[in-house]
Amino acid sequence: MKRFLCFCISIALIFAAVPPLSALASEEYSDDPYWLRWGFESFEEFERLLVDIWSIGLDPDETLSWWWGFNSIEQLLEFHDEEDYLAFEEAYREVSARMDDMPAWMIWGYSSLEEFLEEFMEEFIDWGADAGLPIWHWFGYDYPEELAEWFKVGVDEFLEAYNKTLDEYEQRRMALRIAVLEEAGGTPGIINVMFNGSFIEFENAVPELSGGVTFVPARPFFEAMGAAVSFDGQAGAIIANFADKSIVLLIGQDVISATQNGNVRVLSADAAPYIKDGVSYIPVRAASEALSLDVYWDAEYEAVVIIDADEIIAEIDRSFTFINRLLDLPANMIPDDGETYLSVLAFLTSMTVFNSLDGDKSEDSSSAFNLHTDGRSFNVTGEINLSEMLVQTLMDNTYDIYWLWELLWELRFIIRQQGDIEGSKVDIILNQDEDKLYIRAPLLSALVPDLAEDAWLAFSGVNSYFDIGGFGSFTEGLIPSMLVGHSSMGELVYSQLPRIYRRANEEIFIYREIMHIADYHKALFGDDNFINNEGVYTLSLTLDDLDAAAEEYSEVFYFAGFDLSLSVRTQGGEFADAAGKIVIREPGYSYGAGDTQYTLQFTTNRDRLYISYEVHEQNRRVILMEIDINTTKSTTPIPEAPPDGDTVILAEELFSAFY
Fold it and tell me: 181 with 188: CB under 8 angstroms?
């Protein structure tokens, strides 16, 4: 496989150097050297191509014709002078004969084996290759003798040069690690522990590894997190009290007791705390996770990296007071006060498909729902109307979710046979305490075999899709976050942790990257950018503003146009109402595809939210979706499950063919 990959890479590089076909098929003939007429600026450049062709083992008798797009040498000669081709072939064979006696590293342009090995270490290993994997394996060989033969050198001489270069590389790498660690505030030579971007200082005792588990001195560890630490000698208990939680670990016992908001959890640890030289040591991962902290191990710098998501989110949110009031629209309308609220939702959809031959086609549809919720679970009842055009649009945007696309395909088939769907009833119950979602819709019986019209379909494990973090991997910017329910910029930034983790490259830089992205968003949407005019705070951004922020923070976006205007009005220091408009134009990424423009407009207060969302695909179609939500308090209880006696079928069993 590695040889095949090397072959493919070589092919791509050589094709980049090959002259265009027009240079070969030119009808004009001159007295210039044939290599100049074939598009090369010098004989050395031409010879370099011959070396590259030879280095990947291409036979001139079989390949020189199709190299420039011809099926045979005879066809090539129809477009070019035979004398020139014969000269080309002779030069190639001379190169082949010369290359047969040259070591591979010399063919690749290196002056010595050591120079090649040094560059190999720097380039391949720094790109993430495993330094413990011998170099001959990277070239597809099982033994060093095979690579040494290719390099035209004895195996002992090769191994001596290879091991010397590897040792020198490791020394440089170690020196760089030490410098980076010291600059970041770490201590070389020990296991370091970083909490929220800062290394914890251990004065009298340091972390140590025991039985494959990392232990840390308890007092400096907890105090660095802001806890008050005490030790109950009689019970052998290490107690750390924080502002809103506490944790108790017992010497010699692999259990941890964690208390937060009055809730007590008893957790199993991977090892038991112990006392050594008068110092209490605790298992760092188990203790951190008991405190609901994120824990990473940085093997490169031998460091435990701990992130307090709640603290980081709160720190970020302090700079986004106004934008958070927009992101928290659902919470503004449905306060977390234990009360039940009724939201009446009206959906209007308008679509136009452009057709220059048969004429444009337009249609409108509407649906209405009642949503009862207490901020955690909900019950939705209503009716939907579906047309073939709307279903086709949904299919175009869900092709990567196979089972859903299959259902929509079946739905489109039904509509084509029976006509548009009007007034189809829907009943949905979400019970987050049981992690269950129930759906009853007669429309499903037409799509799913063996499902009766009055039966409920039950889905398990759905809370992750409705909790704040459930949509994090889909969130890359402000507009998606508003649509999927991130209630603050801190949550939005932290939801990008998988992307941040990849960018950080090393775990000790995760916190730095989190705050870097937060600062980038702050430069655009931070409180300092809002202008206060008698209690009305406004923000305006253009594509130039995005360009400036992206350049300053080394970020990348792919917008062809951008315009944003937001306003937030406060009254007595509290949120009153807000409005905004965002227009984004994305360039077409595939051949023949036009630009796509997204326009989002909204107005909201504590009782009403109106959203207008338009997607305009250039020269293809326009889709306008409007959502109008009015909310009031309700006394109607939210059902926890379908009524007794109703038929309930597990979706996992019914859809097993799709999983």
Answer: yes
In a domain, 314, yes or no: no
Find, among 368, 374, 367, 383, the residue nearest to 342 by Cα: 374
Helix (H) or strand (E) holding 577: strand 574-586
Kindly state the helix (H) or strand (E) to which residue 480 belongs, with its residue range: helix 478-484
Among candidate residues 118, 112, 104, 128, the one with its CA nearest the CA of residue 54: 104
- How far is it, in rounded angstroms, from Cα 470 to Cα 446? 30
Q: Produce one character per residue of 170-199: b if its CB has 16 or more CB atoms within 10 Å, e if not.
A: eeebeeebeebbeebebeeeebbbbbbbeb
Are 564 and 541 a contacting pair, CB within 8 Å? yes
Q: What's the pLDDT at 571?
A: 83
Which residue carries 């926890």 as its tokens? 640
CA distance 449 to 52: 60
Looking at the domain assignment, is residue 316 inside a domain? no
C-beta separation of 37 from 30 below 8 A = yes
Length of the chain in terms of residues written? 659
- Burial (Cβ within 10 Å: 0-12, 13-18, ≥19) of residue 291: buried
Residue 53's domain spans which residues? 2-101
**How far apart, in whole angstroms, are the C-alpha atoms of residue 109 and residue 19?**
21
- The count of other CB atoms within 10 Å of the CB of residue 97 is 10
Cβ–Cβ under 8 Å, residues 295 and 309: no
As a whole number, the mean pLDDT across the chain is 79
Residue 436, beta-bridge partner list: 431, 460
Confirm if 603 and 586 have CB atoms less than 8 A apart. Answer: no
Per-residue pLDDT tens over the stretch 99-127: 667 777 777 777 888 888 888 777 665 55
Do residues 167 and 92 share a domain?
no
Which residue(s) pair with 238 in the sheet? Answer: 231, 249
- 101, 130, 164 — which closes off a domain? 101
Pair (130, 169) in one structural domain: yes
Please, which residues have CB within 8 angstroms of residue 159's CB and are 6 or more apart in sequence?
Answer: 144, 148
**Distance in angstroms (rounded) separating the CA atoms of residues 102 and 153:** 11
Cβ(342)–Cβ(631) under 8 Å?
Answer: yes
Give the tens place of pLDDT for each residue, 330-384. Answer: 555 665 667 888 889 898 888 888 888 889 988 888 889 998 888 678 899 999 8
Is residue 526 a contact partner of residue 520, using CB atoms and an 8 Å limit? Answer: no
User: Which residues, in sequence order, are CB contacts of 203 under 8 Å at separation 6+?
Assistant: 220
Helix (H) or strand (E) holding 315: helix 309-317
